[in-house]
């Protein structure tokens, strides 16, 4: 039998195209464009070049001749040839000018960058800002981006401004932007993170009359204009809100889906949020995630139904995650979780809740809809009843009344199976010390594992919880790479960086942020104990 070798160029065009369609189009362009005329024609086929993603292209800082040759081939030969095919473009900011100079892109409809030659063509825009905004100049730049998008892009229908939600803006983002200069009136879908309620009202003044879906994250709900007028707060509040609510009717007329997340607690639920929600009469889906304070009672099913949902005859989906906190009750009149849940059940809502009362008779109620489909959940306490939360990756646990025991952490690991960032706040020592837990006969089978946990914050905790998580006799953390902890706690629990029981969970740490600025003795044991740690001053302060 004769052996034969088939070269890729021996295959017919139809077979090659079918093969190419299964591969990453940019890998094809990087590797095959420029070899010969036949392959050039094939890899530049319109079906392979409608969407171009240059995010993996080596940046301008890479100056070796190989990467420079690749860049020149892309911008000087490839893009001028395929620019008529491109409908969607993703590119690093450093290549912005070269992309613009390479072609006209007459069919471009989606792009993460802006240029006047094709602004009117962009209907879908998604902005991802995952980096932390750490100073005022970065915030000012972001404010400029927000304003330019709303004033320059004239034909937007889908706008997703996804900003790192760990940062709280220090100022209003749209303050001083009159409605008559906002040209993005065609927006149908809007997702945006903003500073406060004033920003929200700025968008709801009639400029977005086509809005169908509105997803908004706010840092605060308060009015900057009346914050200084607390002496006459109620009178000013009613006058200001009445005029604002009347102005938003045009925007809310077409709104079908609304989602509101407010990071900080608010005392303005009844005065600010409720009047706006009652105007959303055509709403079909509502999502609320709130922390509410300064009320005389917990938010329950009756209150939500009577004051909000009763005004939404078309509503078919209601998702909520609501905490009411610092509500004072007489010791003999405290509502139980059963009391609150029964009201939701009577109204036809599937929900769960738990209630805490501190030593000053102040109550906290956390109620949430089931199944829980949000990506964030409000901070939980030791009374949390468990469940399955398949989308939650970031969790804050705190308590000022009761300790967190080993069994509770076991429940948390099962309830949040994809958790990758956990923050603890609890200064109450455990009832069963970590040493007692280790000595239990059944301990070997009760070791907890957080399979996906990457970051652990022990900011304000009793040392028992540092022991709970760092000792592999209690907990396994196979992916832990970042730790926030008190230096003295870490020294004690690791026995001055020599203890074997904590070595495994510490072995993959790449960053350690100490809670207080302390002088650190970086001994030989310290370096050996954290072999992957980036030995830089900023990681130890």
From TrEMBL:
SUPFAM superfamilies from the entry? RNI-like
Recorded hits in Gene3D superfamilies, A to Z, give: Ribonuclease Inhibitor (3.80.10.10)
Q: Which residues cross the membrane?
A: none
Which interval of the chain is the signal sequence? Answer: none
What name is this protein filed under?
A: F-box domain-containing protein
Record InterPro entries: F-box_dom, LRR_dom_sf
What PROSITE patterns does the record point to?
FBOX (PS50181)
All copies of domain F-box, residue ranges: 5-52
């Amino acid at each position: 039998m004769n052996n034969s070798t088939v070269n890729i160029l021996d295959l017919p065009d139809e077979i090659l195209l079918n093969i190419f369609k299964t591969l990453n189009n940019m890998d094809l362009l990087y590797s095959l464009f420029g070899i010969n005329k036949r392959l050039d024609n094939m890899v530049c086929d319109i079906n392979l070049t409608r969407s171009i993603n240059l995010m993996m292209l080596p940046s301008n800082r890479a100056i070796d001749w190989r990467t420079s040759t690749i860049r020149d081939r892309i911008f000087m030969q490839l893009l001028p040839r395929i620019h008529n095919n491109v409908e969607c473009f993703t590119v690093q900011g450093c290549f912005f000018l070269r992309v613009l100079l390479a072609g006209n892109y007459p069919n471009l409809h989606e792009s993460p960058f802006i240029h006047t030659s094709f602004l009117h063509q962009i209907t879908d825009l998604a902005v991802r800002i995952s980096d932390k905004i750490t100073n005022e100049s970065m915030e000012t730049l972001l404010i400029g981006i927000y304003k330019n998008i709303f004033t320059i892009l004239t034909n937007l229908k889908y706008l997703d401004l996804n900003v790192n939600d760990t940062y709280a803006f220090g100022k209003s983002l749209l303050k001083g932007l009159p409605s008559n200069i906002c040209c993005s009136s065609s927006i149908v879908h809007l997702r945006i993170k903003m500073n406060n309620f004033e920003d929200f009202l700025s968008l709801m003044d009639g400029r977005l009359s086509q809005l169908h879906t509105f997803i908004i994250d706010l840092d605060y709900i308060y009015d900057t204009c009346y914050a200084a007028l607390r002496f006459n707060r109620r009178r000013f509040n009613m006058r200001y809100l009445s005029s604002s609510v009347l102005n938003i009717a045009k925007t809310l007329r077409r709104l079908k889906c609304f989602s509101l997340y407010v990071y900080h607690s608010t005392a303005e639920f009844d005065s600010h949020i409720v009047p706006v929600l009652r105007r959303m009469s055509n709403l079909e889906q509502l999502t609320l995630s709130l922390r509410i304070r300064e009320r005389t009672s917990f938010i329950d099913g009756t209150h939500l139904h009577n004051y909000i949902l009763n005004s939404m005859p078309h509503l078919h989906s209601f998702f909520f995650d609501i905490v009411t906190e610092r509500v004072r009750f007489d010791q003999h009149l405290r509502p139980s979780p059963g009391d609150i849940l029964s009201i939701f059940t009577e109204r036809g809502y599937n929900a769960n809740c738990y209630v805490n009362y501190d030593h000053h008779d102040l109550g906290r109620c956390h109620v949430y809809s089931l199944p829980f489909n949000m990506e964030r959940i409000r901070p939980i306490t030791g009374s949390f009843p468990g469940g399955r939360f398949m989308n939650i990756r970031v969790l804050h646990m705190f308590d000022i009344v009761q300790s967190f025991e080993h069994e509770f952490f076991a429940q948390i690991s099962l309830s949040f199976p994809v958790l990758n960032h956990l923050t603890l706040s609890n200064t109450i020592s455990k009832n069963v010390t970590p040493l007692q837990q280790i000595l239990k006969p059944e301990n070997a089978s009760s070791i907890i594992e957080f399979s996906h946990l990457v970051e652990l914050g022990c900011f304000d905790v009793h040392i028992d919880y540092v022991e709970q998580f760092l000792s592999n006799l209690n907990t396994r953390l196979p992916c832990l790479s970042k730790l926030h902890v008190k230096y003295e706690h870490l020294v004690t629990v690791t026995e001055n960086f020599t203890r074997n029981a904590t070595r495994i969970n510490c072995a993959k740490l790449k960053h350690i942020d100490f809670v207080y600025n302390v002088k650190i003795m970086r001994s030989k044991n310290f370096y050996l104990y954290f072999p992957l740690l980036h030995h830089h001053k900023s990681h130890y302060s």
